[in-house]
Amino acid sequence: MSYAVKLAIFPPWKAPVPSETVGTFATIDEATAAGGRALMPIAERELIALAGQFRPVSAKIGGQSRTSIDVPDQAVHGFLIYDAAGVEVFNWTTLDVAVQRAALEPE
After folding, report:
1. Among 31, 70, 92, 98, which lies 20 to 30 A Cα-Cα from 11?
2. Would you kindly state where each structural domain of the chain is located, as residue ranges?
């Protein structure tokens, strides 16, 4: 199976808009790594610009800690992974990084 990675803009509460293709990869792990490498410089700048809008909230649900953030009013960058049939199988955005980092911060 092959997996195509496309950079995308994710408008708030709407479908993502794919743009340039990063490449096609043999495994989903390779595709995810390539998408992350392509997007990380953009994501870091975006995280700095949007930091004050996230307002993270953490709660225990079913014995596990869960963290959420507010969705900003402007679009964020990300990438999409499609399988050989053209079906989206994975996506990642700057918001995923924001949630991961907020979950690591002490309460």
Report:
1. 31
2. 3-104
